[in-house]
Amino acid sequence: MAVLITGGAGYIGSHTCIELLNAGYEIVVVDNYINSKQESLKRVGIITGKDFKIYNVDLLDAVGLENVFVENNIEAVIHFAGLKAVGESVILPLWYYHNNITSTVILCNIMKRFDVKNLVFSSSATVYGIPDRFPVSEGFPLRAMNPYGRTKLMIEEILRDLYESDHSWSIALLRYFNPIGAHGSGLIGEDPNGIPNNLMPFITQVAVGKLNELSVYGNNYPTIDGTGVRDYIHVVDLAAGHVRALEKVSKFTGVDAFNLGTGKGYSVLELVSAFEKAIGINIPFKIVNPRPGDAPICFADPSKAKRELGWVAEKDIEEMCEDSWRWQANNPNGYNNHSELLAEIESPRLLKNSGDFLFNRVH
Ligand code: NAD
Ligand code: UFG
Q1: CB of 176 within 8 A of CB of 247?
Q2: pTM (2 d.p.)
Q3: In angstroms, what is the span from residue 277 Cα to ligand 1's centroid?
Q4: Which end of the chain, N or C, is more open, meaning fewer C-beta atoms within 10 Å of its C-beta?
Q5: Closest Cα to atom 21, ligand 1: which residue?
């Protein structure tokens, strides 16, 4: 029995593959690499010393996806695959609706046909829009602010309808707050295309000298120093939350949403200071206009995940900064160039196997 990981080559997916493999799960990854590199999965194999199957399949390709279910004994799915850039979704809404929503409908149809009804879905704190109270709990009103956010909200609703139509489904909607950090090995991490949209990859690229200075979007919010406040969560903690959610969906039927955050908010300038302190590198910044659509403050009430999944985030802001930096420093060009660190480790052997890829560690 295996767990299918859609979008497993991506930032959160690759870290979750490690946690699942370390917990003894067999996994099968499907990704079309539209926003990732196969190299991340190669490194997952190196870190864990475990083999797993990888399919280069677009989730919109129903035939290709069905073949994955034919060739493997899938028991559950963790569904990460999706496009996630807010600005891009405003410019290309139809692409986002098609890629994120149509693919989820295709996936669920195939799951239904194969009687696989345990699903963990990557939702987002973006479904809360601009919340007016804090911390944010799961019962708060939902109001997405852009096409990307609406894809998450619509998928949540589709999955609720699916459960209503058939109570044998078991679905966890995981609402992530702000994942940062990287695996402690420094081998995998976030590898954004072009200039990063998100704060931490921007900071690390300034620190490594690829960008000159950080633009801080507004300093007039009602926060400790006027800059936006977010709930930053270490991606390894977030990944561990998926293992807990998988255990939950394997034991109960239903559909339920869970916040995955730390419950603590840090302002932009507090994060910059924490990074400078942890790393010992100064981050030059300038204050610019607020980014349209940004919430002033957003941090989670994660007590439901603690109560019902037995999960809490354990890593602090210092470790988030150190691990983000280790990844960036060792891989200044992300997965595009092999890092010196990786060169010291045995190189993985790629075995091509009738359309599937299987990575083996060479001993
Ligand atoms: P990511 O872009 O690194 O990973 C997504 C993966 O899905 C990529 O490997 C991409 O190639 C793949 N993919 C996209 N469309 C596909 C398709 N049609 N078929 C096959 N593969 C496809 O993003 P991430 O940060 O790892 O996020 C994972 C999930 O979590 C996404 O659904 C995202 O919306 C959600 N999320 C992310 C954040 C965040 O801040 N990173 C916050 C909240 C929610
Ligand atoms: N910020 C800056 N300068 C930058 C980038 C960000 O000042 O160059 C500020 C933002 O204004 C915000 C904070 O840093 O106050 C965090 O911004 P991010 O872009 O890192 O994160 P967001 O909270 O805006 O959004 C992220 C994802 C969304 C997801 C949301 C909740 O991009 O897709 O977290 O999970 F929905």
Answers
A1: no
A2: 0.94
A3: 31
A4: C
A5: 31
